[in-house]
Design brief:
Length: 237
């Protein structure tokens, strides 16, 4: 693949230093198992060198991620804890994917069964926290743009489960996040254990757009797809 995205390492979450090595931030274990942080801001404007990549990925326990903003790519992070259940999260996101013709873009599932979806935008958003509801709806995810790090498959998350690829494709281009139903939200993420209002339940399990040719309709839910045999440690160079 020649996606020209900076591959950055992710060290496993640390029991000894849980705040420093979260399993979600740019970091790596060297060949001796010693953890170090990566100054990822350096790679907002340049690719890692071959020497840096060799150093970062010498330990097979390290995962992989990249930065938002390159080529105007935004990584949409949907968190299951913002929904009443994983099943409800799946229904809402699958319906949204179909409604906005996003089946062919980059789609992954996180280690906690959330969703990670990549799109390229012509108009860069001015917000990070987002809703699927217009007029300042409830916060259900984050739009990870310039300088923001995102973990990708096949990284093993803190839960012990891997991030999983659903559709390994170059992010498709859209006019803006609002054009695909992603809007600024009215509230900040919950902190200190405070509860965030939940979205109302949807009666539809999956909305199929009747304009799509039959051959393009999914036979199974997106969340039920199996992993591709071609998965492995990716290079985004």
């Amino acid at each position: 693949m020649t996606w020209k995205l900076p591959p950055l390492p992710v060290a496993p979450a640390s029991v000894q230093q849980p705040k420093k090595f979260t399993g979600k931030n740019p970091s790596y274990l060297n060949s001796s198992g010693i953890a170090s942080l990566v100054q990822h801001k350096l790679f907002q404007s340049r690719m890692p060198s071959d020497q840096e990549i060799q150093q970062w990925f010498a330990n097979p326990k390290n995962g992989i991620g990249t930065l938002g903003g390159w080529h105007n790519i935004i990584w949409l992070d949907f968190d299951t804890k913002r929904f009443q259940s994983i099943a409800e999260c799946d229904r809402r996101i699958e319906s949204w994917i179909i409604a906005h013709h996003l089946e062919d873009t980059f789609i992954e599932r996180t280690h906690s069964d959330g969703w990670r979806i990549g799109v390229r935008v012509r108009t860069v958003p001015s917000f990070t926290n987002f809703s699927l509801e217009p007029a300042a709806g409830r916060h259900i995810g984050e739009a990870l743009g310039k300088g923001r790090f995102t973990v990708l498959a096949p990284t093993i998350g803190k839960s012990g489960n891997p991030y999983r690829s659903i559709n390994r494709a170059y992010p498709i281009e859209v006019e803006s996040l609002e054009a695909i139903g992603i809007y600024p939200c009215s509230e900040l993420p919950s902190q200190g254990g405070l509860k965030v209002p939940l979205l109302p339940k949807s009666n539809a399990s999956l909305v199929v757009n009747p304009r799509l040719p039959k051959k393009e309709l999914r036979a199974t839910k997106l969340s039920g797809q199996t992993l591709s045999k071609s998965q492995g440690n990716l290079s985004y160079r």
